């Protein structure tokens, strides 16, 4: 492959990675809270026993704000740790117990 083409591809990838990491610095508080809520809704483990929020993605929000948001939605804070995927600092939560609905057909 032509060295110029390779250089352009590497440059474009570098710009994309930097933009992905810098973009949260310029988002609003509402956007940060929305990202935290979306990450809370996505179960991290397959059995649904734990979920995590990457602190960096919710930038304007502080750690106590994220924990308060999660506890307001019924989640329980477990611990702060690092993500295995990208090394980002995360907060882990257990989701609230789901209410079972039973259908009663008393006639």
What does this structure look like?
The protein has 107 residues and is of the alpha+beta class. 40% of the residues lie in helices and 16% in strands. It contains 3 helices and 3 strands, in the order H-H-E-H-E-E. Strands 1-3-2 form a 3-stranded antiparallel beta sheet. A hairpin with a 6-residue loop joins strand 2 and strand 3. The mean pLDDT is 85.
What share of the residues lie within helices?
40-55%
Low-confidence region ranges: none
The fraction of residues assigned to DSSP E strands is 15-25%
Structure annotation, total helices: 3
Radius of gyration: 19 Å
Number of strands: 3
Largest sheet properties: 3 strands, antiparallel
List SSEs in N-to-C order.
HHEHEE
Helical/strand content category: alpha+beta
For the largest sheet, list the strands in their spatial order.
1-3-2
Distance between the terminal alpha carbons, to the nearest Å? 76 Å
Anisotropy-based shape: elongated
Chain-averaged pLDDT: 85
Question: Quick summary of this structure?
Answer:
The chain is an alpha+beta fold.
Element layout with pairings:
Elements: H1 3-22, H2 29-41, E1 51-54, H3 63-72, E2 76-82, E3 89-94
Antiparallel strand pairs: 1-3, 2-3
Name a few traits of the molecule.
107 residues; alpha+beta; three-stranded antiparallel β-sheet; 3 helices; 3 strands
